[in-house]
Specification:
Elements: E1 6-12, E2 25-30, H1 36-44, E3 62-67, E4 71-75, H2 86-102, E5 106-114, H3 121-132, E6 137-142, H4 149-164, E7 173-175, H5 184-201
Parallel strand pairs: 2-4, 2-5, 5-6, 6-7
Antiparallel strand pairs: 1-3, 3-4
Bound molecules: guanosine-5'-triphosphate and magnesium ion.
C-alpha cells in the first residue's frame, strides 16, 4: 500500500474526545522507549510526525494521525516507565485501558517489544489482558538493527518458547527496525488487508 498522506489530527487524554470512529484504526503500544513513535514515522515516511525521544516517557497522550484520508494510526503513551510518578502512571493506565476497551474502530493493536530484551512480565501480563478482553493484536519486535542476525533469531526463538508455555496459539509477529525501515511493508500490507473488513462491520 502506498502512503500518500499522513497528517496529525488531535491529541487527547480521553477516548471519548477522539475522532468519531468512522474509519479503521490501528494503534501502537508498548513499554516506554520501545520505539512506537519512531516506527510510526518509519511506516509513513516522515521524520518527525510522531514525536520521539531518547528519554522514556515522551508520548503522554492518545495521538491520532490520519493516513491517506482513509484510516487512523494512533501513537499511545508507553507503559511501565518507573520514573513516572505512581499517580500519573495510574492515569496513563486508565487512559489506555479505557481507549482499548471502548474504541470500536480499533482493527488491530500493535504491541511493540524490544527485540534485545528477554520476555518481560509486564508485556506478558498486558498481552494476557488483551486476550482476555478479545482485543486483536499482533506483536512487533523493534530495534532489530541493534542486534546481529544470529542474536536476533535467538532472542525471538526464546521469546516464542516462553510464550508457548502459556499460549495455545502464538500471536502473529513481525520483526522491525525504524532505523533501517525493515518490517514496515509487512505492517502496511496487514493494514491494507484489514481495512476492507472495517466496511463490513459498520
Ligand atoms: P515513549 O513515547 O517515551 O513511550 O517512547 P516510544 O516507544 O515512542 O519510543 P521512541 O520512538 O521515542 O524511541 C525511543 C528511542 O529509541 C529513540 O532514541 C529512537 O531513536 C530509538 N529507536 C526507536 N526505534 C529504533 C530502531 O528501530 N532502531 C534504533 N537503533 N533505535 C531506535
Ligand atoms: Mg512515543
Amino acid at each position: 500500500m502506498k502512503i500518500k498522506t499522513a497528517k496529525f489530527v488531535i491529541s487527547n487524554t480521553d477516548y471519548k474526545s477522539c475522532p468519531a470512529p468512522k474509519m479503521a484504526e490501528y494503534a501502537f503500544i508498548g513499554r516506554s522507549n520501545v520505539g512506537k513513535s519512531s516506527l510510526i514515522n518509519a511506516l509513513v515516511n516522515h521524520k518527525n510526525l510522531a514525536k520521539t525521544s531518547g528519554r522514556p516517557g515522551k508520548t503522554q497522550l492518545i495521538n491520532h494521525f490520519i493516513i491517506n484520508d482513509e484510516w487512523y494510526l494512533v501513537d499511545l503513551p508507553g507503559f511501565g516507565y518507573a520514573k513516572v510518578p505512581k499517580t500519573i502512571r495510574a492515569e496513563f493506565h486508565d487512559m489506555i485501558s479505557e481507549y482499548l476497551l471502548n474504541r470500536t474502530n480499533l482493527m488491530c493493536l500493535f504491541v511493540l517489544i524490544d527485540a534485545r530484551h528477554k520476555p518481560q512480565a509486564i508485556d506478558q501480563e498486558f498481552m494476557n489482558w488483551l486476550a482476555e478482553k478479545s482485543i486483536p493484536f499482533i506483536m512487533i519486535f523493534t530495534k532489530a538493527d541493534k542486534l546481529g542476525k544470529v542474536e536476533l533469531a535467538k532472542n525471538i526463538g526464546s521469546y516464542k518458547v516462553e510464550m508457548k508455555k502459556t499460549w495455545e496459539e502464538l500471536p502473529q509477529m513481525f520483526v522491525t527496525s525504524a532505523e533501517k525501515k525493515t518490517g514496515t511493508t509487512e505492517i502496511a500490507n496487514l493494514i491494507e488487508n484489514l481495512n476492507p473488513q472495517f466496511e463490513e462491520i459498520i
